[in-house]
Amino acid sequence: MEAMNEALPPERENISRSTFGRGARLIQIPLSGAGRKAWGWGRRLTGTDPDVVAADNAERMARQMTQVLGELKGGAMKVGQMMSLMEAALPEDQAAPMRGHLKRLQDSAPPMPESKVHGVLRAELGSDWQSLFTDFSKRPAAAASIGQVHKAVWAATGRPVAVKIQYPGAEEALLTDLAALRRMASAVAPFTGGVDVAALADEVAARVSEEVDYTREGDTQARVAKAFAGHSEFFVPDVLVATRRVMVSDWVTGERLSAMADQGPDERNRIGLSYVRFLFASPKLSGVLHADPHPGNFLVLPDGRLGVVDFGLVAQLPEGLPPAMGRLVCTARDGRAADVAQGLRDEGFVTADIASEDLLSYLSPFFEPAAVPEFHFTRAWMQQQFARVRDVDGNDGIALKLTVPPVYALIYRVWLGGIAVLAQLDVRARFGDVLEEFLPGWFPAP
Length: 446
Fold this sequence. Notes:
Strand content: 5-15%
Number of helices: 16
Order of helices and strands: HHHHHEEEEHHHHEEEEHEEEEHHHEHHEH
Helix content: 40-55%
Shape: globular
Radius of gyration: 22 Å
């Protein structure tokens, strides 16, 4: 988290809970987009190069979206974080101007005033909360969707700790935003590169009662930390205290995963492989799937290990990932179309009749990284697959005949999100080896 001590925007009051006020801010995004489009047409009529106009409009949109979503925090900012995660799948003319702005939503946002911070700490830890620390940083090291993190020193041990503090009104803001985003999804869609805002809102809504309870998060993180204690490749910080709105855990010093994009190929490949290994190893070793795979939650420690934080959004999988996953991936890898189709029907992925060969052809890119000894994850490959999946009219409408069963919802998110991050980092890795080691139901190729 030390790498997150960048200059943060000015402090703001606690999250606005007004449905009208938050909805009005959100609707600015599509309305301003329409205004920019009209302004752009005017510039083109005066002879300005169309490519220059388009690039300028995209830059303005990204800047405004980052500002509005970051200031509102709550569910609005979470959608922005997911968009930053998936920007590798967008066409380059849309992704390029959004990349830098939306990346800021992964681990920074306008912080709340010091008085609000102290108010939450008094309510959760008691009036003498300051006696628990020998030092407490006034400015947050990171500020995100429903809370911000301060660096402090734990008096009992003298160890540096991360104090995660939830914004007052965070839960109400989340519910308000999700309802507003659901209503305006169709209006926002043209300005989000095709990202399904409604689906994102529904997904966050299903987990909101869990994610705003830091007691639950603390229990989960402590269990994962115990499972990975002393691990040579991964580090999960121990939890010292957890209440509903405050959590204290060991401080993690490291460089953000997204910064690895500037490293050489060997280091990118090593860290990218560790990242995807953790996503699959955690369900097997701890019974927990970390379901928020954006790079802001992963840090590269000075000793080369991968540090993992933020266990608010998880899937509890005490038996590990479903064994059907390994069987389906291997069956698809071996080209057994009829068995793939039947397996997907058995698991509830198929909602209508689809020819087995057509289904395998449509889904093959999802299994492609596991079907070769080594796979190169690139933005171009990700963009090609995303465009193909979004084409609901092509491929005989196969996309409309498929669904994601509830038990697989977060697994699907992690699979796609993990691949998106690997594409952002331009990683070449033995992805199949990871699945062979950690995915239940895996069997060797004939």
